[in-house]
Each structure stands twice: as C-alpha cells, then as structure tokens.
C-alpha cells in the first residue's frame, strides 16, 4: 500500500497542508527524530527505511503538482472503506447524525470531512426501527406458552394447529371478533373461561392445559403495553425466518443481495410482517448493514407499488386482472361500506367518514362461526354472529348468503316446530308424536327433551284412563274415565271407540237478543241433560243455518248457557247453532229459527259549531246503504223522517249553513240498511249544537324556563273564552281552526297549569321536545292557536380543543339523553347554523366518540378554527338541535398587527385628538381589545409602566385595516405612546408592532 506522506510527516491531508515552509520544517523534524530512533528503537531497520525515503518525500511534498497527485492517490486509499460504508448507509435516502459520529470514531476523521463526502441529506437522529430495540415478554413465560400450545394441539388435534394466544382465545370462546379485541376484552374472556373450567371441577390433563393458557392470557394481556410486547415477540418470530433467508443468500455470494428480483421478493415478505413497504425496506437495510452484507435496493417506485391484502396482509403488486386475494379469497380492493372510499391496508378507520373498517377483517371468522352454528341448528348463535358481521361490514355478499340460508333453515324448522307446539297446546299429543318424528327426519340434529317427555307422559296417562274405562260396565264411570283421558290427550283414537255407544244430548230452547246501539247479539239456551263434563260449541254462519260443528265459524266454546257475541257486522243476517260436546263427541244442534240482524248507528261523531255554520263528521258503519239527516229547532228529532231533511252529499259528514248564530238546533243522523226484503233505518244518533262567532286564536308571546322542568308563557288578553295549553305530537300547525271537543281530546294532550293569570301561566314539561298549542275554550267550540316548539335538548359541557400529531381533538362532556352531536367549523367565522353550507360538518355518535375519546379532524397550520357543537335529539324521526356551543382554536402562526398613531391639538385646547390606524396580515380576523398607554419621556415596555389613556374595542378588520378616533386629556409635554393588548394571552395569536414609534409622542 502506498505511504501517506502527509501522515508520515504529521501533517493534515484533509484539508491538505500547502505551506512549503511548514512542510520543510516537518521533514527536518522527522529526519532528526528518525535518526535518533535508529539508535534507540528495537526496530532500527524501520526508521532507516524511512530516512532513505526522505529525499523522495521532500521532492513530492515541496512540488505543488506532485503533492496534488499524491493527495489524489492517497485519498482513494484513505477514504475507500469510509466511502463504501457511506454508500450502504445512503441507500435509505438519508444519514443520521449519530451515524456520522460513529464513522468519526471508527476512522478518526473529523465530522466535517465525513459530511463533505455524503451525497444524501443529513438528518437528526430518527427513532429506532431496530427489531432488537422492541420490548418482548419474559422469555420464561413465552417458553411456557409455547409448551402449553404444543400440548393443547396434541390433545385437541387442532387442524390447523393453534400457534398463538390470540388463536387460542378465539377458538376456546368461539368468538371470532376477539381476534382484533383490546387487551381488556381478551383478559376478561380468559378470566371467564378459567372460572367456567373451575366450576366444572374436571381435573383432566387437557383442562389443566386450558386453564394454564387462560392464566397466561391474563398475564400477557394485563394491559395494552404487555399486549404490545407479545405482539413484538410474534413479529420477531416471523422476522427470524426472513433473516435466516437473508443470511443464507448473503453468506453464499455477494451478488445474491444485489439482485433486484431477489431483494424485491424479500421486501415483499417483510412487508407482510411489518405492514409497510417503507418500513420493510428500512428493516432490510438495517439488517444488511448490521451483518455487513453487500446489497442493492430496487427502485423506490417499485417498492412503493407493493400493496397488502386488506384482510390477510399478503403483499402483492396491483394487477388489473387480479381482483381476489390468492391466500384468503377476499377482494383486493376494499371500499368503505358507508361512503365507498377505497382505503389501504394501513387504515383502521375510513379516511373520509371514519367508519371503523378494521373490523371488516373479523367478518370471515364470524361467518365461519355462523356456518358451524347452522350445522348444529343453533339458530340464535348463528344469528348473533351474523348480526355482528353485518354491523362490521354492511352489505357483504358472504354474510348475505348465510343470512338467507339461516332464514330458509329457520323457517323450515320453525314452521314445523310451531305446528308441533300448536298441537301440544291443543293437547293433541297423539298427532304431536307423529309430527315430532317427521321434524327429526327433516331437520337433523333437532332435539327437545322436554317436549318428548311431555308427549309421552300425557299419552301414557290417557291410555291408563282408557284401560280403566274398558275394565268397567258402569256408564257413569266409563264417561268419567274417558273424559279424563280426553283431558290428557284429546286426539287419542281409542276414546271415540269407547264412547260412540254413549251419545251426548243436545242443548235446547236457543234464543237471541240484539243490541242495536252496541251492535251485539246475546244467546241463551237450556243445558244438556247428559252427565259428565259437557261444553257448548257455538257456531255462526251468514245467511244460512250451520248444520255441523264445522259448518260455519266457531266463535266460542262455553261451559255456561249464555254468550255475548261482540264480533258482529251491522246489516248482516246471522244464524247460530249450539252443539253439546263431551270428550270429543258432538251432539245434534239447537239453532235459531230466524236470522239475527243489527242496524247500528254512526260512531265517532265530531260536532264543530262555527259562525253561522255547524259541521258534523262521523264514522259510517259497514254494510250501510245511505245516510239520512233531519233537523229541528231547540231539540233533536225523535226518529227518521221527523223534522226538516238536510241534504247530505258526503256519506261521512255534513255542513249546515242555513243556521243563525246563538240559536240551538237539534239533529238526528240515521243509517239505511236492507234486511233482505225491505229498507230499514237505524234508531239514529241524536244531538244538539249552537253556532256562534268563535274568538280569534291566541298567540303565545314568549315561553321562559323558570327552573328544572317549569316554564312560564305569556300572551295578549283574549275575549271571550278561556286559554288552555295542549301538547301536539307533531309540529303541524292548525292555527285558527275551530274543532270539536272530541277532536281536541283525540289529537292533543292537555297541559295542567301550575298557576295562571288571564295573560300568563306556569306549567311543567317532561319531554325533550314539546309542541305547545294554545287553545281558547268556549262552551260551543275550541279555537286552535299558533303552535310553538319548546326544546329541552341540553348542550355539551366543558368543551375544549387541542392540536396533536397534526390533528385537532375536540373533547367535551355529553348532556343527558344525547347520543349524537354535530360538529361544524369554519376558518373565517363561526358557522351560521347547523346547515351552514360554508362550514365543514362532522356528525358524530356517542359510540364513535367513545372509540377515540374525541372528535378528530385535520389541522392546517396558520389557520384559525371557529368551531360550533350542536347536540342532536331525535324524536318522531325528526332531528332537533340544541343551541351552539362555540370554541375557537388558535393557529400556531401569529398574525402581525402594525399600527400608526396620529395626534393633533388646538393651540388653546387641553385635549388631544388621536387617530390610530391598525392593519393585519389576516384581513378577515377580529382584533382583540387594545389599550393606549403613555409614559413620560420613555416609551413603556409593559402596559403597567404608564398611564392608560384609552381602550380600543375589539372589532373585525375591513380591507386589512381599521381606524380608531378618540380624544384624551393633555398630560406631560413629552409623553411617549404605545399600544398593548388588554389580555396577555392575545400575544399568543398576534404580534403588535408600531410603524413609526419615534413619532408616537406628545409635543
């Protein structure tokens, strides 16, 4: 290797020594030093050789050209190893200060020398990405976990084997959603499983292993920090295999790790472990440098093209033809189910709407668990898993398909089970037994021990009573035993075989009475003379007589000898038959001799007298042909055709306008029917009404909250009538309407007054949203006023904001009964209202807020954020908003405020006229309150050091400047003036600078 003459002479070569006098002195100094060492050194030959080279050294070093050529040659040698290391360190695109420090110590070069040879940017020290720096759990517990998992797989024959505690806790609890759960949730499930196995009390080897693994879950999932250590261990295990591959390639040949395809393949595998192609590249570089392998990286563009499957994390290069992951079979491109935005593998929440897309990864496991539950006909468990799957990934095709399959299986099974239970409810156990056998053949796996036991027990008991009936000749005992057998099993075929020779006598003397007003029929008859437990079977039929128990509609089974039929239609001809029924045997019937018909009147009548008008509405009964109305003065007509007929175009209402105010009129409304031969009028609905001039509707002036739920309302005096308040279910206004008392009570709820005067009242409101309707009550009418909504929706409390990691975090306390808020912000002023089109709107549920403990959105440096939070309450599908709670978040960039002061004073005046012009580099912002301070001879440094002369109020800027004019008393001759902000915290947002401070003084 060529000698470095600079080093031999003790001279610097970076920068190189060029002073010939210094070089010549160094040569002579070394000559004397080496001559001495030839006599005293144990290796005199070395220094003799150096002395012999001095002439050559002198010739080279004292000639500028020769010295420069020598310098170029030795630089290649001296910096060769340094340049090689710098090249390797530079592949990541930067070199850190700590790496320069290490090179300086290793080679002895100063930092400036090293920095001159660096071709990439030099950065501050970055956070360590070394896998060695990540904390992992205690190795002892890790070995115990691995041993227990190995033993568990042997006992359980798990396929595929369970390799992590995550897989274990999901498998043992049958909860796929725990795959992405928090440490707290994992620990709670492990504790629950431990307690379950302790209750079982089975001390098998397998159960001991399970309890050990649950206990280890409790330890490793104590908190998120410990859980992260376990995650680091699992990641490290995956990296070990990749590191081994790198070692194999690096040790075999220096060329292996410079091959682009090979390195790209390794970076893809690393990406699947560390979930970032950029971090994977960094991990690869760090490991190769640590092992001193020669390597070369693929281009940045190629590395950045690496994507990961959203579900299984497998790395791939996007291809238009590849739309399904080859590993897990899920789509490679995933759109947010809520807003359709495409997100990448690194996102846990949708970057647009914040939907928690990370839970979509759990859907596959939930669908697997649902399918396993369906195989066991465990519909409830399957439905629970599918509900979660649909919540995590709405509209997923696989979930939809399983839900459809569940519906088919459940319907098929439930229809059959429903029929089975209906037979059991009717005590038809003989048929139920055959139905149960059919179900078990149709739906494999169905079993219900309680139903099977109930069927067998009742059939067995019935057969015992039948055996007793067959063993006696006494008619009374036979009937009694068969009746008891019938009570146990009503469809046992042997009961009829025994009783067919003992018929039951029919009831007699059936009569019917109709109540036209109520539209009901009352039936009465004489009891059967037969002994035993006799029940009466009542059958009804239209137009013709029922001849058998199944010929018509069964309306009742009665033990007594009378029945009230309330389910009749007016104008319909009914015939009735009553059969005696004993132990499954029917008698011959007793029947009505003629048809039973009801002629019902109108119902739900509403009467509204107005000025020179009476309006009536009603509900028309079914089967009516027409309506007839007659009128008399002072009292209602007695029957149809009595009085003056009123023409009625509508079948359900009429308005009589041929009336005078304050005169009473009587009416009768009759319904016309046909009894099959003749037209028949109903008895008629009779009423009276008095038209009058209604008062003007009342309008509420103001409603004020007194305290708690108590409010006070005021209104202008009214006459005639009395003011009452009612609650409406909707915001619909019927101001000025005149309504009847029936309609008032039907549509509105009365609000009792706690106290009242002719123009005010106090009352209590309970609901969050109330629609208050003022009503003027008069003897003949009620006049509806303008409705007013009163909202008790509470506002958020303790609203604060902060900036963290380039995000704005808005925190607050939720008011009672509120589960949704709406956050709006602008950068120029507060939002006008909740629908401000210029504001950014962020609706947030309490559940979404709970996941982040804040409302988050992007922060833009230098911007000011004017934020409004509205509480949202939902009632009757209507969103009601509270008042806005406002908050201003200040940007980190200060606004510069420049000001100028102009003074003038008359010759004999004792007051100065002052004009201050202020301008700001943020034209739309509002300047805070400022004060003008004066001090004798010297400008004040703080506002407390002088006399406050005036206060300049806060105000918005217009065209970047604002002018303030005012006067103040003349003080000292030489008073220096200066502006200050009234509040010290305003200096966080603004810098206040005088344009011409030397002129800001009094004369």
From TrEMBL:
Residues 506-602 form the Fibronectin type-III domain. The keyword Coiled coil applies. Gene3D superfamilies: Immunoglobulins. SUPFAM superfamilies: Fibronectin type III. Signal peptide: none annotated. It comes from the Archaea. PROSITE patterns: FN3. Keywords: Coiled coil. Residues 367-423 form a coiled coil. This is Fibronectin type-III domain-containing protein. It comes from Methanofollis formosanus.
